[in-house]
Amino acid sequence: MRSRASTCGPSCAIPAAPIRSGCSTRPTPGDSAGRVNPARRILAPNVLGLVACVLLGACGRIIPESLAETPPPPGAQGVTAAVSSLARGPSIASLPLAADDAAQALYAFRESCPVAVSRADASGLTRPEDWREPCAAVGAWPATDAAGFFERYFVPVRVAGGNAFATGYFEPEIRGSRTRRSPTDVPVYAMPPDLVRAWPADTPESQREGRAPLGRYDENGDFVPYWDRAAIEEGALDGVAPVIAYAADPVEFFFLQIQGSGRLVTPEGDVIRIGYAGQNGRGYTGIGALMHERGLIGADTGYATSMQGIMAWLRDHPVQGRAIMRENQSWIFFRELTGDGPLGSIGVPVRGQSSVAVDPAFVPYGAPVWLDLDRTEADGLWVAQDTGGAIRGANRFDTFWGAGDEARAIAGGMSGRGEALIFLPRSAAARLGL
């Protein structure tokens, strides 16, 4: 267990997440089902991690770049770290870098090296050759002196002032099975063969710009939008799409789809790890915002504006809850993962309490990132191995916490502000005059 996690302890429950910011500074107390204690309704500060993804549609979860459907390319507007203000930060030796923190970051950095030495850096801060010296040395470097490795090969740099905002994500773990054991089990579909990109026949040539939409060809040979969530739940893909497994809880699986990857644990204790493979082309709708607008969650409803509160309402109102979940027409297809961790956007496993999602227009993939936040459990050294649709701009981070209940609690409530330093190879820092 990384030392930073121990600072959280049992108090790390997912706080209530209001729809608007500017509230008081204390989380909403609630029972285990997520219902608000009527005697103590206190709004919490805005939380923009997984909870915001559900409430507002501001998903920060990773979607591998090679598979992503819609995220803009890094630096699409020409704004990158290379054209931002840069300043040298304090020495690494002066930072309170814990030994186990450094050792885990060393391991994560080693896994990122094949990408760092071969891939163009969209931030403009580094070149592949800048990474060759530290990557050549990391393989034989002793973990007992991990801090010494970073001191020798890197220079801390503030990008655009270094004012950081960090959220969190995790790998959900829910009940499932290879075979359907209950009529309510939900199929976990792999990519269906009839999901294609094409232009409808009536689309003028002048409008055929960018990527063609996702859809399917119907029985008349016409290109139409792909099945939405309601149609898929009603069996539109029966006998069409391969089934990887079955999820035992429709509500838990709904949230796992939002997160984009996770684990299914069978009654026998086997683990089936699944990761994002594609999407049906339909728009994402954050159901929490709808529920709040309709007065279903929030003050005086008995249900907190948190992930637990939303889940509690959905379970207490199964018919209405199913209809609300179907208002999010997006459906995620999966592939089975056989490695020892979910893959980040650069194709290497992300590690709990070590990997962080970044905007690659501002942080080079593989770069160590130092965070000093008002959420102390996230303080320390991370490695940039991921990105996400909502992770945009300088000093915007999404910290990965692994799997399990503790990871879920910390990630769901993570909303930290403070300072960020990007560790650049010394040759890159010298070229930038730092």
UniProtKB/TrEMBL annotation:
Keyword Transmembrane helix: yes
Catalytic activity: Exolytic cleavage of the (1->4)-beta-glycosidic linkage between N-acetylmuramic acid (MurNAc) and N-acetylglucosamine (GlcNAc) residues in peptidoglycan, from either the reducing or the non-reducing ends of the peptidoglycan chains, with concomitant formation of a 1,6-anhydrobond in the MurNAc residue
Gene Ontology MF term list: hydrolase activity, hydrolyzing O-glycosyl compounds; peptidoglycan lytic transglycosylase activity
Chain ranges passing through the membrane: 42-63
Pfam families assigned: 3D (PF06725), MltA (PF03562)
Keyword Iron-sulfur (UniProt): no
Positions of the Lytic transglycosylase MltA domain: 173-335
GO cellular component, one term: outer membrane
Top EC class, one word: lyase
Entry coiled-coil feature ranges: none
Gene Ontology biological process terms from the UniProt entry: cell wall organization; peptidoglycan catabolic process; peptidoglycan turnover
Protein name per Swiss-Prot or TrEMBL: peptidoglycan lytic exotransglycosylase
Organism annotation: Aurantiacibacter spongiae
